[in-house]
Design a protein that fits this description.
By secondary structure, the chain is an alpha/beta fold. It has 3 domains: 2-61, no CATH class; 77-134, no CATH class; 136-251, Metalloproteases ("zincins"), catalytic domain (Zincin-like, 2-Layer Sandwich), CATH 3.30.2010. 33% of the residues lie in helices and 22% in strands. It has helices at 39-61, 122-152, 200-212, 221-230, 235-242, and strands spanning 2-3, 7-13, 21-25, 28-33, 77-79, 84-89, 99-103, 106-111, 159-163, 170-174, 187-192. The strands form 3 sheets. A 4-stranded mixed sheet has the order 1-2-4-3. Strands 5-6-8-7 form a 4-stranded mixed sheet, with no helix packed on it. β1 and β2 form a beta hairpin. Bound molecules: zinc ion.
């Protein structure tokens, strides 16, 4: 359909959606619509939201072309090997707050069907909710995995921390302060919470990379030879694959 102010409006059906969710894609309004909807309902919804939509169009237009407007709506979902996240409209929540339901790494955020994804602060809040769930599962799963790998390869590690680092998957530091203490090796490994969203083979790469630093505190040929041996000769292939991922929840959002 066409709107006198916004021009051509594209629609995309999502069986799980109960209401309309608006986005801007390449200068056009893109609406996620439920299975059953009518042009009249959509037109009414646009009329109600016109000032907000105008604002959204202007904000997007002010950005460089290659910077896509990334938003969380009904169709946002993360489906990684160890963690999934999705949103679900729940009519029993009408007029109430959203509710999280979790089951073994599968998180669902149930929201009232009329949840306003464009309300002030809604997007920042949603991003925070997703990241907090990733952090919570990362803290529950990753340290144990790293320690199991350390045991398997007889590598020493004292402390494992999960942090919110962006731009790096992990780091390994030798804590010189506690060097003199008996029974400690002084190696602290930090792992970014986004590692949880990587496929398990890449989680292994990141963890073994940091663990290898307990043998070689550098990236010398010796370091890579040791790491490559632990990875069965696949270090280069896995490194190349890891470059396709970034530390950003939207980078893991399924299309
Ligand atoms: Zn390194």
């Amino acid at each position: 359909m066409t709107d006198s102010e916004f021009g051509e409006i594209q629609t995309r059906t999502n069986a799980r959606a109960r209401g309309f969710t608006f986005r801007v894609s390449e200068g056009h309004l893109l609406v996620t619509v439920p299975q059953r909807w009518s042009e009249r309902e959509l037109a009414e919804s646009i009329e109600r939201m016109r000032p907000k939509l105008r604002n959204l169009m202007q904000r997007v237009a002010a950005k460089p072309y290659n910077q896509v407007e990334r938003r969380i709506g009904w169709d946002f979902r993360i489906e990684s090997e160890c963690f999934t996240f999705r949103l679900k409209p729940d009519s029993t929540l009408q007029g109430r707050r959203c509710l999280l339901s979790k089951e073994h790494g599968h998180v669902t955020l149930c929201c009232p069907p009329d949840f306003d994804f464009m309300a002030d602060g809604a997007q920042a809040w949603l991003v925070k909710v997703v990241e907090e769930q990733v952090r919570s599962y990362a803290k529950g799963m990753l340290p144990a995995r790293l320690r199991a790998l350390a045991n398997e390869h007889r590598l020493p590690v004292d402390a494992v921390h999960i942090n919110s680092a962006r731009g790096r998957w992990g780091s390994c530091v030798k804590d010189l302060k506690h060097k003199s203490l008996a029974n400690t090796t002084g190696y602290h490994i930090n792992i970014s919470l986004f590692v949880l969203l990587l496929p398990e083979r890449l989680q292994r790469l990141v963890m073994l990379h940091e663990l290898t630093h307990t043998l070689e505190m550098n990236h010398s040929p010796r370091f890579h030879a040791k790491l490559d041996a632990m990875l069965g000769g696949n270090e280069a292939t896995l490194e190349k694959e890891l470059k396709r991922f970034t530390t950003d929840i939207f980078a893991f959002a399924a299309q």
